[in-house]
Amino acid sequence: MKKTSLALAVAASTLGLSQAAVADFIGDSKASLTLRNFYFDNNTVNTANNNGEASEWGQGFILNYQSGFTEGTVGFGVDAVGLLGVRLDGGGRATKAGRDRTPGALFPLESDGSAVDEFSKAGLTGKVRFSKTEARIGTLTPKLPILVSNDGRLLPQLFEGGQITSNEIDNLTLTAGQIERAVGRASSNSTGLSVNGGSEASNKFYFAGGDWKVNKDLTAQYYYANLEDYYKQHFAGLTHNLGLGEGSLKTDLRYFRTSSDGKNGKEAGYGVGGYTKNGDGKIDNNTWSAAFTYSLGGHALLLGYQRVSDDSNFVQLNQGGIEGSAGASVYLLTDRLVTNFTRAGERTTFGQYSYDFASVGVPGLKASAAYLKGTSIKVAGGSEAKEWERDVAVDYVFQDGALKGLGLGWRYGVLRSDLASQADTDQHRLIVSYTLPLL
Fold first, then answer.
1. How far is 439 from 434, CA to CA, in rounded Å?
2. Cβ burial, residue 76 (10 Å; 0-12/13-18/19+)
3. CB–CB of 151/92 below 8 Å?
4. Residues 105, 124: contact at Cβ < 8 Å?
5. pLDDT, one tens digit for every residue, the chain (439 residues)
6. Residue 95: what are its φ and ψ, rounded to 5°?
């Protein structure tokens, strides 16, 4: 609420400026309406009587407005977003006789366990620009190594807080901020912050870091984050592009060090889910990965390996057992359609082949297939488990004619696991999207 009030104050001060001062504010404004039609089918094949299918279909509307900045040494502006999700089918009350209507994937739930007919959310962001530094306060959708806003369902996840981004030094981008609340992708309500398995909320997530473009082919990153009473996290990353004849090789190295903070592992409700060394929910984790992508023409082949240390799962900010918890992203190449391969002790080998059909005269058509296998997963009692996932994706965007800009997407994922807590899953997603420019 405090962040929203500050955003409103920035907006009000902007509107109070002279006509000349707001010329760029209005002239540089942009607005668009994104229409997203989403069908989701998630079949958990090894549940009792195979009665574990969630099948839902909805229509999403995402209205985005971005103002320009007022003239002068210090420029002011405001952004706004309005989101509406409408249920078209599925999501009725879960019953043994109605397995194809099990809710919970795309929409919030009513008190009787059925999906709502529609839900909405909105956000306002005040922004200030000085030189090459920009401050934003209000609704945020971060895309940072230590926090990634999830956009894998009908409507995106939103965060509330403040962020400063500076490009005052050439080739160096510095970022810092604080997040206090979140609105889950299947929720209208703002809630506190947690981790997967946590049931108590924290309202303080601090972060800072930078991206240094050493040269045109090499970028180095470092970020620090702290979710109060849950964890502290350091991230270091390195990406490099190397020309190899007509092709290129991209190297992507990532390392996370995550440790306990405050009440984590000491008080009820502040523990992380899954295996922990002493069964106390304490976070203590090192995760590293290395991936190499060779590209030639329309072809791209990625091979990689990831190692999660033994004492707890890898974590990043999540709403845990709090409302809207379903749906959080992590900054790992193993964050895939069904699972993310972040369990304690897990060692994951993965590969992906992608093809861009523009190389054979069909621009707009892309396809990929991926396979990931995780082994050595720690399980209470000293045993180990394994899991694997296979994903296929096909996307096409019309390039001209009456349907220009219309996007069609199909996602298919299969997960198989030894873990008692993880059901075997077959998942389909069909997405039709179109963005209509308004300004």
1. 16
2. buried
3. no
4. no
5. 555 555 555 555 555 555 556 668 888 899 999 999 999 998 887 655 455 677 899 999 999 999 999 998 999 999 999 999 999 987 655 444 444 445 567 888 888 778 899 999 999 999 999 999 999 999 999 999 999 999 999 999 999 999 999 999 999 999 999 999 999 988 898 999 999 989 899 999 999 999 999 999 999 999 999 999 999 999 999 999 999 999 999 999 999 999 999 999 999 999 999 999 999 999 999 999 999 999 999 999 999 999 999 999 999 998 766 665 467 899 999 999 999 999 999 999 999 999 999 999 999 999 999 999 999 999 988 889 999 999 999 999 999 999 999 999 999 999 999 998 888 999 999 999 999 999 9
6. -140, 160
The answer to whether 177 and 162 have CB atoms below 8 angstroms apart is yes
Do 60 and 185 form a contact (C-beta atoms < 8 A)?
no
Determine contact, residues 321/335, Cβ cutoff 8 Å.
Answer: no
d(CA 22, CA 77) in angstroms, rounded, equals: 9
- What does DSSP say about strands 158-166 and 133-140: parallel, antiparallel, or unpaired? antiparallel
3-state helix, strand, coil in the chain (%, to 5): 5, 55, 40
Beta strands in 131-230 (DSSP E): 133-140, 143-144, 147-148, 158-166, 172-183, 190-191, 205-215, 218-227
CA 389/CA 427 separation, integer angstroms:
11
Say yes or no: domain 2-437 is CATH 1.50.40.10.
no
pTM (predicted TM-score): 0.91
Q: Kindly write down the DSSP assignment for every residue of 293-347, as one continuous string.
A: EEEETTEEEEEEEEEE-SSB-----B-TTSTT-S----SSTT--SS-----TT-E
Residue 424 CA to residue 416 CA, distance in Å, equals 5
For residues 264 and 273, the answer to whether their CB atoms sit within 8 Å is no
Which of these, 429, 338, 427, lies nearest to 38 by C-alpha position? 429
**Residue tagged 């995106």 (tokens):** 156
Q: Which residues contact 236 (CB under 8 A, 6 or more apart)?
A: 220, 221, 222, 254, 255
| 108 within 8 A of 153, measured Cβ to Cβ | no
153 touches 106 (CB < 8 A): yes
At position 81, the amino acid (one-letter code) is V
Q: Which residue has the tokens 């309005």?
A: 82
Q: What is the largest CA-CA distance in the chain?
A: 71
Q: What is the dihedral of CA 276, 278, 284, 285, to 10 degrees?
A: -50
Cite the beta strand spans of 4-117 per DSSP E.
30-44, 53-66, 74-90
Start-to-end Cα distance in the chain: 29
